[in-house]
TrEMBL record:
It comes from Flexivirga oryzae. SMART domains: HTH_LACI (SM00354). PANTHER family: LACI-RELATED TRANSCRIPTIONAL REPRESSOR, LACTOSE OPERON REPRESSOR. Keywords: DNA-binding, Transcription, Transcription regulation. One of its GO terms (molecular function) is transcription cis-regulatory region binding. This is LacI family transcriptional regulator. Residues 3-57 form the HTH lacI-type domain.
Amino acid sequence: MSATLREVAEDAGVSMSTASKVLNGRPDVSPRTQERVLRSAADLGYHARHRARRRTNSVLILFDDLISPYSLSVLSGATEAAMRLRQSLIVERMLSDEQPRGLTKQWFDAVAARGINALVAVTTPLSDRELGWCADAGIALVIVDPIGTTTRSTVSISATNWAGGRAATQHLLDLGHRRIGFLNGPPESQPARERLHGYTSALTDAGIEFDPELVAGDVYAVEPSVGSAHTLLALPDPPTAVFASSDASALGTLRAAMERGLVVPDDLSVVGFDDTLMARWAPIPLTTVHQPLVEMGKVAVERALTLADDADAFSHPFQLETHLIVRETTAPPRTHSDEGTTAG
């Protein structure tokens, strides 16, 4: 069996990034170290296999979901970057009805054998073991909107989710809302947790105690969010506004409001997050937090290719700026005097 990059580095007594530099022909390593790494690679049977596959520069972009407007926006940016850089972009989906969640060591080795030296994983959960297999295969990795907690050495691309969550909530507070519901995303999603923290931060600064009864949902999807929104709107003291942590969840909230005979935004204000096409094409144009999904796809491909060339290029997360887009689903809360007003 061919040796891994980790085994070569350990045998030569150097870091994996140094071993990667030598095996990629980088000149910024001392001759003595180069000789030691190349000797280890030759002894372990690594050098020939990896030199053969390094002749091509391909990026694999891996999705957990490939049908949402979110994923399609990220893919659009990734495609644009790959075309501009004249690199091959291979698109795959991690899950299907027949395949279980999770990636094997054989999968990473097969990716490397196909000549792919960079991987962009979009909202795809990767365990520490899977991250190790990726590194052992010599594949540069960039994660877009990571699921789970990443290590300091993992390069991730995301938006300023905390700031976006805070801006959405502050917008509703500024309109006069005090009972603000929150539709959450997957509990293991780092962006979802950051949006929730932005929501609670804005409430705390406004002197409003966090009420866990006003938080519902655990998925970025329309249908489940309809039920979650009904749960909030059926409370004895229901919210006058809902901040949904995705546009899909916001659309579910709009449907629930309609089913309950509520008028948006007169009876209920709704804010989403993403600013995908569905926000602009919603029955009522959606107030939402714009995150630069196309740019995130571009940056992810650019960073992955840079890492494939230089493993020490950077090892920290990148956050692109969000901003609030105010459309037609938010307004001041209806007061009792408003309810009693009739046309004269």
